[in-house]
Amino acid sequence: MEVDVKAARIPVGRIRSAVILAIALAAISAAASPAGAADLSGCWQGTWESCTSGHQGPLNATFCRVSPTQYDVRFSGRFFKFIPFHYSVTLNVESEDETSTTLAGSHYLGRMVGTFTFRANATATSFVANYSSCKDQGKFVLSRCCSSCGH
Fold first, then answer.
1. Other CB atoms closer than 10 Å to residue 52's CB: what's the count?
2. Domains in the chain and their CATH numbers?
3. Which pLDDT score, from 0 to 100, does residue 19 have?
4. Which residues does the chain have with pLDDT short of 50?
5. How far is CA 7 from the centre of its chain?
6. Can you give the pTM of this predicted structure?
7. How far apart are CA 69 and CA 52, in angstroms?
8. How far apart, in whole angstroms, are the C-alpha atoms of residue 17 and residue 103?
9. What residues does 60 pair with on adjacent strands?
C-alpha cells in the first residue's frame, strides 16, 4: 500500500496562520483572566487583641493550603504574657482575586471559650482577621515572616 505524500501535505501558509492564531488566542486568554492571589502558605507573625477585655499578645501562624478553597492554619501565642495557647482551624476561601483573599471559618475551643468564628482579609504580606465568640471578640494582625517556620 502506497500513500500519496504530495496529497497529504498542508500548505506552509496554512500552518503559519494556524500557529499565529493559536499564539494570539493564548495571549488574549492570558490577558483576560486575572492572576490568582498569592498563596498564603508559610509562616506569619504578629499580634492578637481582645476588643472585649483589652488583653493582647504575640501571635504566630503557619498556613498550609490543603485545597484551592481551604487553608489549615495553626495559631500559637501567649495570653497574660506567659500562658501559651495553640489551636488549629480550617479557613475557607470565600473570594480571591489578584491582590487579596477573603477567608472565613470557625473552631470550637471548649465549653469555657465556645466557638470562635473568623473572617479575614489577606494579601501576599498581611493577614487581618476579626474573631468573635460568645465571650470575646477581637482582631489578629499578622505579617508574613521572612525566616523559616521554626516558631
1. 12
2. 42-144 (2.40.128)
3. 45
4. 3, 5, 8, 18-19, 21-34
5. 55
6. 0.71
7. 31
8. 45
9. 45, 76
Q: Which three cell numbers stand for residue 134?
A: 460568645
CA gap 49, 55 in Å, rounded: 6
Q: How far, in Å, CA of 95 to CA of 52, rounded? A: 29
Burial of 96 (0-12, 13-18, 19+ CB in 10 A): middle
User: Rounded to whole angstroms, how far apart are CA atoms 36 and 65?
Assistant: 14
- Copy the grid coordinates of residue 91: 479557613
pLDDT at 149: 58
How far is Cα 63 from Cα 72, in angstroms, rounded to an integer?
6
Q: Is 107 left (phi over 0), alpha (psi -120 to 50) or beta?
A: beta
Q: Which residues contact residue 32 at a Cβ distance below 8 angstroms, ignoring those fewer than 6 apart? A: none
What per-residue confidence (pLDDT) applies to 101? 95
What is the number of other CB atoms lying within 10 angstroms of the CB of residue 138?
19
